[in-house]
TrEMBL record:
Pathway: Protein modification; protein ubiquitination
Organism: Sarcophilus harrisii (Tasmanian devil)
UniProt-recorded Gene Ontology molecular function terms: ubiquitin protein ligase activity
PANTHER family found in the cross-reference section: NEURALIZED, NEURALIZED-LIKE PROTEIN 2
SMART domains: NEUZ, SOCS_box
Cross-referenced Gene3D superfamilies: 2.60.120.920, SOCS box
Coiled coil feature spans: none
Protein name in the entry: Neuralized E3 ubiquitin protein ligase 2
Biological processes per GO annotation: intracellular signal transduction; protein ubiquitination
Limits of the NHR domain: 18-236
Domain SOCS box: residue ranges: 242-277
Amino acid sequence: MAAASRSLPEALYREPPPTRFHEVHGANIRVDPSGTRATRVESFANGLCFSREPLAPGQVFLVEIEEKELGWCGHLRLGLTAWDPGSLAPVPEYSLPDLVSLGRSWVFAITRHHNRVVTEGQEEEPPGRPPGLLDEPYLHIEQLRIPRDRLVGRSRPGRYSHLLDQLYELNVLPPTARRSRLGVLFCPRPDGTADMHILINGEDMGPSARGLPTTQPLYAVVDVFASTKSVRLVQLEYGLPSLQTLCRIVIQRSVIHRLAIDGLHLPTGLKDFCKYE
């Protein structure tokens, strides 16, 4: 309860605990011992997962798509619920419509295109080039300022990396692709309610739900549905960037493309980190 009612400015200066998956989940989900990876082991349904703890205001529950499964129609679903996962017996088969029909739950179906929310009186903007990590290192949502470095999923370096994302300026991954990163958070409003925001590879899709209660704990919902088979949690930095992150930024600004990092005299682990592996 305290986590949900905490004010946003206070949350900005307090590092949230690491995110983990709840031990309560869908019948076809297996969570690894660390609580950071969830895999659907059969069928296309019964893949509901929840955060272990309620989210704090402004805290991002961020997952990266690790595995895909061909032959199914549909993709990952993401959202929030005011239900304590421990009280859900049995766990609903689907987030949409089963969990949402219980009330106090807000879930957004991720699609390959058209994930941005258009608010009333606002015209839909044509898809454009996302800002480069070196040009705009922070994502701003209302009072929040979140480093974009770990929010953005990256394709694995390959022969044509220098053509696809020269100088790390482009994000070329579709929302539903492997290694794509998707997150959910809520931002309190002055009227005592909150807006739910969906993040896709470092971009805010806008308020996908409004009027959420801030007086109740809100848990993240991840539905590992259909063609999405496995996801892993990604931990964020909310304060000052780590020394490792600062090193990566300096190195990225000094090379032409990711493959050039292999020629640097650096430890293998740092090279992989700089290439987003």
